[in-house]
TrEMBL record:
GO terms for cellular component: cytosol. It comes from Leptospira wolbachii serovar Codice str. CDC. Pfam families: CheW. Residues 18-158 form the CheW-like domain. This is CheW-like protein. GO terms for biological process: chemotaxis; signal transduction. PROSITE patterns: CHEW. It comes from the Bacteria. Signal peptide: none annotated.
Length: 167
């Protein structure tokens, strides 16, 4: 049994996650981020709202006694709110040591996107959501929009989230 546990050595784990991206959908568009940032995928839990926060911050969830702030990625990208449904889920990620839940329409799959299939995103317009996009990934005949999770929160927003009780 200890040999099986050794297979999860950090160096080996990083190699197996190389070029892997978690793909999800918003508004029938495919987005992806490096799977190494993902902690867990959850069915949409009960969310406790916190008055006075940004509209894209939906509140907090309690996961095994840990309070985690939750962001609706659709609203962060300036998309129209869409009622949650049975496939809506929360992606738990960690950004610079800060746990964060990301509400997305659907989770699609985990794909391997080799570096040679990734192109820096063209600068199209000055929309607020373009700051989150760093590249596109070619997968067969489709294109995935690759997002930089570190840019989902400004320094000020991250600081405010850290001040939420339980963080």
């Amino acid at each position: 049994m200890s040999q099986n546990l050794k297979s999860w050595d950090v160096d080996t784990d990083e190699d197996t996650m190389k070029d892997l991206y978690l793909c999800f959908s918003l508004e029938e568009r495919d987005y992806a981020f490096e799977v190494r940032h993902l902690t867990e995928i959850l069915a949409l839990p009960a969310i406790t709202t916190i008055p006075g926060t940004a509209p894209f911050l939906k509140g907090v969830i309690n996961i095994r006694g840990k309070i985690i702030p939750v962001m609706d990625v659709r609203l962060r990208f300036d998309m129209i709110f869409k009622p949650y449904h049975e496939r809506t889920c929360v992606l738990l990620v960690e950004l610079d040591g800060l746990p964060l839940g990301l509400i997305v329409d659907t989770v699609n799959d985990v794909l391997k996107i080799p570096q040679e299939n990734i192109d820096l995103a063209p600068k199209i317009g000055e929309s607020k959501s373009s700051r989150f996009i760093y590249a596109t990934g070619r997968v067969g005949d489709t294109v995935k929009i690759l997002i930089n999770l570190q840019r989902l929160l400004t320094e000020e927003e991250a600081h405010l989230i850290k001040d939420i009780p339980g963080n």
